[in-house]
Structure formats: structure tokens, C-alpha cells
Amino acid sequence: MNNLGNFLNHFKRNSITLRLTLLYALSTFAALLASSVFLYHVLVNDLFLSDEKVVDNEIRLVKNVLVQHRGKIVMLDPQSNERKAYYLRVLNTKGEILLETPDMSLQFDRKDFASPPSNGENSHIKTVKSIDNRYYMTRSGSVIIPGHKPYELIIQMALDTNHHQTVKAKYQIRLAIIILVGIFLSGILGAFVAFKGMKPVRRVTDKLLSYKVTQLNERIDASNCPAELMTMVNAFNLLLAKIERSFNQLTQFSADIAHELRTPLHHLMVETDICLRKERNTKEYQETLQSSLEEYNKLGQLIDRLLFLARAENPETAINRAKISIEKEFQALHEFYQLACEEKNIQLRVVGSGFIEAEPILFRRAINNLLTNAIKHTKEYGKVNLIATEDENYYIIKVIDTGIGIDPSHLPHLFDRF
């Protein structure tokens, strides 16, 4: 079993062309073997029927002669069968031999002949081997001799079929040669067909190997691919689209990071340069340091955001869910944003109660982002509503405002990093 498993594993690791060639050769071998076995059985059956017909004709002829001459066996001349193509024997019901071909008793035993039925029919056929190692078909028959006292005679016939055995042996050799030649030719033809059949796979492989970073926008043309490769090509094109989108997002992410870092760093460099151009008093140095501290805080917040994005997109990051009270969270948010809303005369309303299972930090950050954006883009005397409604097994949290809304061109980028 281990050897078979190792062979199957090794077979699976081989090239598809080799596997197709072997499978094609095995299929051809199976077809040729089945055809050869069928043809051989047809030949054997035809030879058997031909021999049976000869034996039956000879037995019928002997029966007719015996009936016509009232059982006078002198009318039969077994000596005429010089070539011994068949042997003939006539017996009475007591088993006494009345007539037989010379040397028949030496070549055959009594058991080589089946007993015939008493209704005048012939017995079943037996294939036996004589003393001189030749194959014979034997059959017995009975005949009723008419007269004042009808009596029964038994006829035994043995037909030499050794020449048919030679024919079958030669036929077996020829079939074996045909099978071997067929396997050889099918292997060559199978390799050629498999090589041609794998051409689309090689074409797709060459296309994949030729891809560069600058060609992520290109796709493999699936219209000329076979149906078997259509699914794989479409799946690769879909994967390529995801890679392109991720690469573009990474590129944009790098550009956004550079832009976000450049502004506070530029402010720090300008303030430091101005401060160092001439002597300053203590108050001026404090003001410069205070301004730099604000920029450092902005940089710290930006770094926190980047770390948060990195952790949030890591599939291995564990999310620690906890039971959160919606009412308490909403009240805390209301108190935190109340001052910002009063500065713009915005009415902030929170509605919701119940408990949810969520990661507290992620939940608060998501709601904070929505509320900050809503308050920022809502004009004076506007309204911002934070509402939580229960729907079967989950809650729907909505932030509704009377602000300027979102430009349709920005909708596809709502979940981008920046």
C-alpha cells in the first residue's frame, strides 16, 4: 500500500503532458485488450460451431446408413479414414464394440465420450487430448434400428481439432503484437496530442511569466482560451485586479503619508529656522517650543492613525469583543461633542438603548469619525442625529445630518485609508 501511495504521489507530481500520455496509452491498451479478447472469443466460438457441425453431420450420416441397412455395420468402411481426421466407433447397449476406426481404443478411453440420451439425440460435446497429444472434439449419439425387434446402437465420434489449436495460438500471438504496437503508437500519438493540447496552458504560463509591475492593468484574453482554462484565467484576472487595486492603494497610501508628514515637518523646519536667525528672549523661545509641541502632537496622532490602520488590516489581529451599553456610549459622545455643536449652533440628538457585542475602541473610533465628519460639514443651525435601532438579531446605527452631503465622485473612496 505504501509503494502504491508513493507511486500515485510521484505520478501526480509529473507533468500533465506525461500524465495525459500515460492515460491515453492505458486507455488504448484497455480498448485494444477488450477488442482482442472479444475477437478471440468470436474466433474460438466460430471454430467450435464449425467443428460441431462437422461432427453432427458425420454422426447423422452414420445414423442414416445404419437405419437404411438395418444396422448392418459391414456397410461402413472405417478403414477409408486413412488420415485419421476423425475416429468412429459403433457399440451396442451392452458396450460391445461392433465397429471402430483402427487404433481408436489406443487413443481414447471410454470416459472421453459422454453417454448419449436414449431418445436418439446426441450427447454434449467434450474436448479431450489423445494419447498422441492431439486435441479432439468428441460426441456420442444413439440410433434406433427398426425391425421386428428394434434395438439401439451407440455411435461415438472424435474429430481432430488440433489444427484449430494452432490457428488459435497464432491468432493470440498476432493479437499480442497488435496490442504492443498499438500501445507504442498510442504513446507517441498521445504525447503529440498532449503536447498540442497543452499549448494554451503554455501560452497562459508565458503570459503570466512576462508580467511586470507596470503591467498590472493588463489582463489575459479569455476569449481564445479553452473552456477548461476559462475559469482559471478569469480567476487570475480577478486576482490581478485585486493586486492592482492593492498596489494602487499602497502607492496612494505612501503618497498620502508623505503629504501628511510634510506639512508638520515643514512647519517645524520653518519655525526652527526663524528662531535661529537671531537671538530670542525666553518668551519667544517658549512660544516657538509651544508651537513645535503642537506639531509634534499632530505627528503623534498621525502615527497612531497609521498604527491603527496597520493593526486593523492585519488578519491575525485579535478583536476583543465586550458587552457595550449603547445608551452610555451615546451619552458620552453627546457630552464630548456638545461644545463643538454649540459653537456652530448645531442641534445634536442621540437616540438609542440596548446592548451590543463589539470591540469598544473600534466602535468608539467608528462613531467618532462619523460624528466628526457630520459636524464638520454641517452648516450653522443644522441638525445631527445619532440613532440606534434594533432589527431582529442586530442593531443599525445611523448618523444623519443636514450637511452638504457626499459628492458622488467620492463615494467609491469612502473606505480608503485617507
Task: Describe, in plain words, how this protein is organized in 3D.
The structure is a single chain. This protein is an alpha+beta fold and 418 residues long. It is 56% helix and 16% strand. It contains nine helices and ten strands. It has a five-stranded antiparallel β-sheet with strand order 2-1-5-4-3, with helices on one face. A three-stranded mixed β-sheet has the order 7-9-10, with helices on one face. A two-stranded antiparallel ribbon has the order 6-8. The longest helix is centred in the first third of the chain and has 53 residues, at 16-68. Mean pLDDT is 80; it is low at 79-83.
Task: Compose a concise summary of this entry.
The chain is built from nine helices and ten strands. The chain is an alpha+beta fold and 418 residues long.
Which helices and strands, and how do they pair?
Elements: H1 2-13, H2 16-68, E1 86-92, E2 97-100, H3 104-107, E3 126-129, E4 135-145, E5 151-160, H4 162-197, H5 199-209, H6 227-276, H7 282-312, E6 322-325, H8 326-343, E7 347-351, E8 355-358, H9 360-376, E9 383-391, E10 394-401
Parallel strand pairs: 7-9
Antiparallel strand pairs: 1-2, 1-5, 3-4, 4-5, 6-8, 9-10
Helix pairs in contact: 2-4, 6-7, 8-9
